Amino acid sequence: MTIPQRSVSTEPSHLKSLVARMAAGDEAALATLFDATHALVFGLAVQIVRDAGAAEEAALDAYAQAFRDAKRFDPARGAVMAWLLNLARSRAIDRLRQAGGAVRRREQPLDQAAGRAALDAPPSEAAWASERRERILRALGGLPPEQREAVHCAFFLGMSHTEVAAYLNAPLGTVKTRIRTGLDRLRQHVDMLEVST
Questions:
Q1: Residue 148 to residues 19, 110, 116, 134, 156, Cα–Cα distance (Å)
Q2: CA-to-CA distance for 55 and 48, rounded, in angstroms?
Q3: 38 within 8 A of 85, measured Cβ to Cβ
Q4: Residues whose CB is less than 8 angstroms from the CB of residue 5 and which lie 6 or more positions away in sequence, other chains included
Q5: Residues 6 or more apart in contact with residue 181 via CB below 8 angstroms
Q6: Number of other residues whose CB lies within 10 A of the CB of residue 72
Q7: Distance (Å, rounded) from C-alpha 180 to C-alpha 87?
Q8: Is residue 194 very low, low, confident or very high in pLDDT (cuts 50, 70, 90)?
Q9: How far is CA 154 from the centre of its chain?
C-alpha cells in the first residue's frame, strides 16, 4: 500500500483557506485545521512542557486562540503553521511558568528539540511533518553557531530572551539581535528549500 504524500507546496493554501473560514465563524474549519496540524502543535508543546497532559492543554489553548484571532491572521506576515506553532509555544511557556519551571534541562540535542510529530499522527501527516522537520534542521545547520544556539534556546527550550542572555552569558541586546537575525535567515532558507522542491 502506498502512503499518500502531502504536497508541501499545496499545504499552505489549504491551511489559509481553513483560517479564512474560521474567521467567518466556521467551527468545522477549526476541527479540520486541528486534524491537519495537531501532531506538530502537540509535539512542540510536549518539547517545551515535557508533560503530555499540560502539552495537550497548551495545544487546545492555542487552537482556541487561533479561532478567536483568525480574523487578524495576515497571510502576508507568515505561514499558518508558523502562526499556530508560535501560539502553541506561547501557551506552553505560559503553562510552564505557571508551574514554576521556566528554566529546564538544556542538554537536549538540537535535532531532538526541533520538534516531532505525535506518535498517533496519521501516516500522511507524519510524512509531511518529517519532511518539514528535515528542512528546518537543514536551515538551522546553516546558521552561524551563535545564532543557532540563541534560536535553539528561545524556540526549542522555551526560554525568554532574558533567560537566553543569562544562559549564554551575553548582553540582552546581542541575544535579541542573534535571535531576530537567525529567524530571518531561517525563514529565507526554508522558503528557498520549498521553492526548489
A1: 31, 9, 19, 16, 11
A2: 8
A3: no
A4: 124, 127, 128
A5: 147
A6: 7
A7: 18
A8: low
A9: 12
Cell of 144: 552561524
Q: Are 88 and 59 spatial neighbours (Cβ–Cβ below 8 Å)?
A: yes
The angle formed by the CA atoms of residues 15, 17 and 20, to the nearest 5 degrees, is 115
| Residue whose C-alpha is closest to residue 134's, from 121, 120, 115, 149 | 115
Please report which helix (H) or strand (E) contains residue 132, including its range.
helix 123-141
H or E segment to which residue 189 belongs = helix 172-196
Residues 6+ apart with CB under 8 A from 29: 18, 19, 21, 22
Q: Hey, what domains does the chain have and what are their CATH numbers?
A: 11-140 (1.10.1740.10)
Helix axes 11-23, 27-49, angle to 10 degrees: 110
Cell numbers placing 32 = 479540520
Q: What is the pTM of this model?
A: 0.53
Question: Do 124 and 4 contact (CB within 8 A), yes or no?
Answer: yes
pLDDT tens figures, 68-94: 999 999 888 878 888 888 899 889 888
Asked if residues 15 and 34 have their Cβ atoms less than 8 Å apart, the reply is no
Task: Please identify which residue in the block is written with the cell numbers 511533518.
Answer: 129
Q: Can you tell me whether residue 53 is helix, strand or coil?
A: helix
Average pLDDT, the chain: 76
